[in-house]
Amino acid sequence: MAMIPNQLPLLVADPTGRSLGLDLPPGALAGPADDPWLWAGHGPAGPAAWSALRPAARGAGLLPVLLGVERGLEEWELEPERMSDPADHEADEVLAGFWGSAREGSWPGLARAQPPAADPEAAAATVAEMLTERGFWLEDARPALVPARRSADIPAVIGWTGPVNHENDVARLCAVLRSWEDRFGARVVALTFDQLVVSVAAPPRTSEEAGALAAEHLAFCPDNITQGIYGTLGEYAEKALLDTPVWTFWWD
Fold first, then answer.
1. How far does CA 24 lie from the centroid of its chain?
2. Which is it for the CA torsion 136, 141, 143, 147, positive or negative?
3. When you count CB atoms within 10 A of the terminal residue's CB, does the N or C end of the chain come out lower?
4. DSSP state of 135
5. Do residues 2 and 85 lie in contact, with contact meaning Cβ atoms separated by under 8 Å?
6. Taking the CA atoms of the chain, what radius of gyration do you get in angstroms?
7. Is the pLDDT confidence value at 1 over 70?
8. Which residues make Cβ contacts (< 8 Å) with residue 246, sequence separation at least 6?
């Protein structure tokens, strides 16, 4: 995978990250000492963490993400060396392949891009703040920084294996996330052991648009629909996608 210069090793001698313009809480690096995959805080992120970490992207090429704590990182089986480069894959081809292996009929193709209703970075910060408020399901999530060029690449950079029962090379899914970045202002906001949370600055505004996008979601993460709370793809489109600024994916 094409990598940017990794600034995380600087945190060995400078754990607060002040040389990178940061003021990090106590945390630890994961991965090889000379080329770690991520930095993660020891304590809960809290609603202010995302905005505090965001300047790292501009100054050091480090992108923020929230990490769920229902299982420790040692159980996540991170395997970045197994992942290809998201740039080697095309979203339409990836989704068409998933569709053909699980659905009858022709792949309907990618949904049309939507004009952003908000700045994608501001939308991500709003979602991250909401998810980490007291009482929300990621209130105990840890703050993390990943050396990635774009938000969509974060799962591949850290070698996330959450969707392994659906796809064991998460870079292929990252190619779809890149396309969603471009078409819907999507950003990867959080990861847990088997869940992915994405903020959306340009969600579909009509039932027709939501229905077209729902086909992509079904190919990307079938368990969301086949094992979720929605009885039909149309119900999923209306209740999970229409005017919705957060997309959540879960793989069994």
1. 22
2. negative
3. C
4. T
5. yes
6. 18
7. no
8. 127, 189, 197, 198, 199, 200
In whole angstroms, give the CA distance from residue 36 to residue 105.
44
Q: Torsion over CA of 71, 169, 105 and 244, rounded to 10 degrees? A: 50
DSSP 86-99: GGGS-HHHHHHHHH
Tokens representing 165 are: 């029962």
Reported as a single tens digit per residue, the pLDDT across 36-86 is: 999 999 999 999 999 999 888 778 899 999 999 999 899 999 999 999 999
Sequence letter at residue 143: P
Q: What pLDDT is attached to residue 3?
A: 66
pTM of the shown model: 0.95
Q: Which of 241, 243, 242, 239 is nearest to 231 (CA)?
A: 239
Cα gap 173→144, rounded to integer Å: 21
Taking the alpha carbons at both ends of the chain, their separation in whole angstroms is: 27
Instruction: Write the DSSP assignment of 188-232 as a string of letters.
Output: EEEE-SSEEEEEESS---SHHHHHHHHHHHHHH-THHHHSSS-SS
Please check whether residue 203 is in contact with residue 245, taking contact to mean a CB–CB distance below 8 angstroms.
yes
* Residue 249 phi, psi (nearest 5): -125, 140
